[in-house]
Amino acid sequence: ALAWARASAKCLNFNSMLILLPVCRNLLSFLRGTCSCCRRTLRKQLDHNLTFHKLVAYALALLTAVHTIAHLFNLERYNQSQQATDRSLPAVLSKMHLQDNKWLNPIHSNHTTVEYVTFTTIPGLTGVIITLALILMVTSSTEFIRRNYFEVFWYTHHLFIIYFAGLLFHGIAGLVRGQTEKSMAEVHPHRCALNLTHRDQNCSHDCCKDPEFGSIPAESWKWVLAPILLYIFERILRVWRSWQKVVVTKVVMHPSRVLELQMNKRGFSMEVGQYIFVNCPTISLLEWHPFTLTSAPEEDFFSIHIRAAGDWTESLIDTFQQQKPEMPRIKVDGPFGTASEDVFQYEVAMLVGAGIGVTPFASILKSIWYKFQQADQTLKTKKIYFYWLCRDTGAFAWFNDLLASLEQKMAESGKADFLTYRLFLTGWDTSIVNNVALHFDTATDTVTGLRHKTIFGRPMWNSEFAAVAAAHPRSVVGVFLCGPAALAKSLQRSCQQYSSLDPRKVKFYFNKENF
Fold this sequence. Notes:
It is a single chain. The protein folds into three domains: 1-199 and 207-236, no CATH class; 245-336, Translation factors (Elongation Factor Tu (Ef-tu), domain 3); 342-430 and 444-513, 3-Layer(aba) Sandwich (Rossmann fold), CATH 3.40.50.80. Helices cover 47% and strands 16% of the residues. The chain contains 19 helices and 14 strands. The protein has helices at residues 2-19, 25-34, 40-44, 49-83, 89-94, 114-120, 122-139, 143-148, 150-157, 160-170, 181-186, 189-198, 220-243, 311-321, 359-373, 397-412, 430-438, 461-471, 485-498, and strands spanning 177-179, 213-215, 246-254, 258-265, 275-279, 289-292, 302-307, 331-336, 348-354, 383-390, 419-425, 455-456, 476-482, 507-512. The strands form four sheets. The protein has a six-stranded parallel β-sheet, sandwiched between helices. It has a three-stranded antiparallel β-sheet with strand order 3-4-7, covered by helices on one side. It has a three-stranded antiparallel β-sheet with strand order 6-5-8. Helix 1 runs parallel beside helix 13, helix 4 packs antiparallel against helix 7 (122-139) and helix 6 (114-120) crosses helix 7 (122-139). The protein starts with a helix and ends with a strand. 30% of the residues are buried.
């Protein structure tokens, strides 16, 4: 079992080195910027940082179980060897050097139990603490907990501090020991093991000397020191940025309890599709929540749209609705890069938003509006298909003005076919349907007031992808999603199905927002 314990320990050290890197968001944003000239497939790997983080966490949980079970077997064998009264090799080795520091068996008494060693030694106690911290972090990271009890996920995840502190101290006591190099040269186990159990009092050859044992040096700190220092620097940078003053310049309450905050911050610079972390000390000093920026880089402010989707967002919306003389203080950390930054690298882009998931595309479409206004000739993108899925009509309201402005601006520029958008209403009642039926022949949609009519139901993605592939047979199409996992699977499957094997023909690349 010692081989299992040692092998899993090496793997634990390696995975502990990796676990912090995917959540160093400044590092990822820096790499995304420096990899802008790299291949598209290489940059896309950075978008899977949270998936990689979860895989490493699952590996840690599995390896911890293997390591713990293996050491429980080891301790039980140590205990049996100490209590044995025969002349077997484990029994003989267990009785050696009990008065000095050259022993092999950490259990020196017949009255010592496995439980006693587990809870009174540094390796045992730190191992228990590390395991408990890991169990709490993994179990509180499930989709159900994160969606419904985010605070539980947030606070228990900070047990990683205890995990790494325990890991650094776990091996320093040297509970697992081995024969020293000097002793190996003098009393090699292959040559002398049999002699230990059968030697007499007058032994005079080389193997008569007792083997000496020493602790195996702790190695965990060598693996995790660099990632810990990198993460500490990351946190210091984020704390410094969060202390910089943020001025809320405008507050707008949209239908469906969507709050828009427009803000200014000195030195703030953004790209399309990026996101920030927001903290409101009035609600919680420690909780930070990610929100996609809905403003364009060309604007002199940055904005976010917040939908009521939990205790914290409900409290934030209520706080701003109270209309107090003094505006609630807001802290901002970021911005950080996402997959949507690459949207203008594609000739054709398909943007898919579900509900409030439309926010990154608001930034993109606003930026396009400014590019048309400034007659930007460097715009590589020739065509955008925009799909927005909503459950209720109120969700369309805050985005209508932007789409209407885009329609008008593109018509004036002679590029009315640049943007094709489809709005899908997935939840409706008979009153809405009757109203639409009565005004079916009107030029504008009765739900949104836009030229394109709202479609009732969900998109038929096979038809949509087939139409795009037929319209752009030799283009590279970027598919961008901000929405649920089920929709992501469907779009990813369609991307694979409708991409041609011929590199000269149409190719779909799937990109999903991950916070």
